[in-house]
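Exercise 7. Given the components listed, write out the predicted structure of the assembled complex. Treat all entries as one system.
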Amino acid sequence: MLYVLIPLLPLFSFIMVGLFQKWMRNQAHLICVPMVFASFGLSVYAFMQVAGGNPVNFDLYEWIPVGDFRPTFGIMIDQLTASMLLLVTLVSSLVHLYTVGYMHGDGGYDRFFAYISLFTFSMLALVMSNNFLQLFFGWEMVGLCSYLLIVHWYERKASTNASFKAFIQNRVGDLGFALGIFLVWDTVGSLDYGTVFAAIGDHRNDTMNLLGTQVNVVTMIALLLFVGAVGKSAQFLLHSWLPDAMEGPTPISALIHAATMVTAGIFMVSRCHPIFNLSETAMMVVALTGAFTALFGATIALTQNDIKKVVAYSTMSQLGYMVMACGIGAYVAGMFHLLTHGVFKALLFLAAGSVIHALSAEQDIRKMGQAKKYMPTTYWTMLWGSLALAGIFPFAGFFSKDEILWEAWNAGVMGKGLWLIGVIVAFMTAFYTFRVFFMVFYGKDNMTDEMRSHAHESPRVITIPLVVLAVGALFVGWLGNPMFGPNLSHNFLGPVFNTPVSHVPVTEHAQLQMPNLVGEAFAEEGHDPHAAPAPHGEDPQAADPHAMAPAAHGAAAAGGAEHGGGHNKTMEFLLMAFSLAVAGSGIFMAYAWYYRPNEAPAKLAASYNGLYQGSLNKWYWDELYDAVFVRPTVKFAHGLWRVADEIVIDKVLVDGVAITTRIGGEILKFFQTGRVQHYAMVMSLGIFVILGGFFLF
Amino acid sequence: MIPLSSYVILSAVLFFIGVVGVLMRRSIIVVLLSIELMLNAVNINFVAFSHYLESITGQVFVFFTLTVAAAEVAVGLALLIAIYRNRQTVNVEELDMMKW
Amino acid sequence: MIEALFIYLATVCVICAVLTVSLRQPVYNVLALLTMFFHVAGLYVLLNAEFLAVVQIIVYAGAILVLYLFVLMLLNVRTQSRHLHRQWPFAVLILGSVTAMLVGALQDGTWGVASGEYTAAAIQEIGNTQAIGLRLYTDYLLPFEVASLVLLVAMIGAIVLTKKGLIDDHIKE
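Answer.
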């Protein structure tokens, strides 16, 4: 029950700061920071407990019981949740701390703290959920907090526009997500993870009528849920809100739009892997969407000039990576990348924020340069973050990214294509990351004199989180190293997903298959969906729905197994070396072009002007959406305003009521003489009429 | 033996004479007197029913009616004096401030 | 004998009531009402309600009507040239027909059943006053106290309303 405190402590600080904001006098951090650190401490405890083999799953209370629909508020902490808890509370704590310095002197200081505490609560409620409805609750709440925090500087038009965009695009995704949940309820009749995942296999071949065609229900559920993930994780088609969300304060970009909220989509897909695994089509859609987003984001990030925009597009691209990993069934790799990415991307954002903070709120990298001498700590931490993002050994990104690439390589023919995309993206990532790095800290000094005179290292409250995260960026990757010692990330997360760990031959793996964690937790209550272990040995593929991973993946795993572990290991190292070389060449290219002022980039841009303009303008998706959705809506609304509002409502209804009332009043006022006896006379008349009626009938 | 209906009819007649008085007199004083008349009509009813139904409750109610009538007279006449002092009239028709 | 007495009392009551609402001079109105009250008291006696008959004379005739007379003298209102409201024929017509309808309807009817609790004989045995008093101070104690409160409020109200300077200024504003 102690775990209940993990989300409740931030909620408490939100309530305190939110209610008593007026009396806070910019001291809100005195409440919020200790609370979120306490929450972090409890998360560490929870992580230890889970690592020690004590996952929990219990219901707190029934929420809104309606007939058979009895949703509960519950807490489930398994390996997946525990890792997310650790990431969320760690980044949130550091961001809280960072905010103390970054938002110092801001008019909405206390409000800001209230909202990030609320966000922390919502995110924790999301990851700790043990049913779909609570997941949806957290899902919506984080969306709301994202909106509230993007619009923190609400007097800026750009902020309000960005917040609307984020909110509306998220709504589109959430609609799909909600429909998916409805369909889950309709199909299984429960929203509880354990029940749903145990029963969904029985509905593998169910079909439903969608606009006259019969479609597979499970595929439909998976796709609808994925629509939610697309919106929340800024995947292609609902991606354009994420870069615009950078209008919010930088701590928010780090916490919400890099490390935690945007990864909710990947978390959700991983959590719902029993559903996704049943549908080959859905998995393919997921994988392709992820791959395309990765490529798409990376190409845009190449040319952006706003330091935060570059990091934002890189976030989008990396999220694509993770989604791609989920799409090929490599949930462990996806989650592992999520965790490492959370650390180093938060670091990059906070470092970028530190740069912005130091350089008089300038965000355009063309107006920076030679900043190294002013801010050594920021320089070093940003270097580490960049190396991690670029995927250079031994930083975190190297391990997690290469694991995804390795899993993709093993995932059949399509996987080879995805691998190729992944490598190209890795190259671009290395290039644009270091493009920013060199332009800010080396290159030509383009700062104005005023900026230069104010340039300074950020205060310690800002640099401490940077250093902590930088250390994290260096070490967290080793948890998933494939070379020496045990692969901790697989050992820890693997049981949740039941996915073939590439080092284990598939036949052996099928026998070793552990029941998934939800089932395990339920076993304590006697509802183990895998209660009969006997069929596993006889026919593992048929007996366990979770083993029915997409055929492509299964084939690849089997193929890998035939070659034996040794060959795989060699191949893996070869690929690692290859991608390391690719990333290195990306960095070298950035070095060659941007370390010293250089004409090469401009020349290249001029010779491929079409491509350059396309990338610079985000491939014109904003313009496309503007033309397809925004403008027709505005036109329609304008029409409604002119006709429905001004004529029908204003003139006919509102004015009409007023005019009728006034004319009626003008007539009726002659009956109001103000003389008592007239009124009494009318009353008598009434008596007469009533009595007369009584006598007549 | 006088039937109960005789009393009830008498009471009704007196009551409506009172109502007519309220409706047709211009002087507030007589309007108030007419109200007294109506109250008495009601009292006759109470007492008659009390007698014929062999229950004392009706007479108790008359007692209360008397109390209310006394209060009404006190306040009514006080109002009358206040009005007269301000408007120099007791004519109901001239007291028409309650209009548009 | 009792029927004759009833007819006499009822006739005088109605005549006096008509006079009360129709006479021009307010003083005559009051005097007509006074006459009527005496006859109503007579009706009460016919109905075995001696206590109420006495109270009727003391309170109505002795207090209320005297109060009216005082006010009349005090204000010394000019007799109005036109003492009836313009709508008077209409009022008489409408309410006359209502009365006619009621009289027609009330001609015969049975209302309730005699409870037998307070028969004429029973009341005579303990006396009308004691019978009322017993009920008043047991079952109707709370209404009785409330009634005293009503009187108190009326008293204060009358003083506040008539005292010069207490509300006059506000009215003039």
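Discussion: Strands of chain A lie at 56-62, 72-77, 207-210, 213-216. Residues 624-696 of chain A form one domain.
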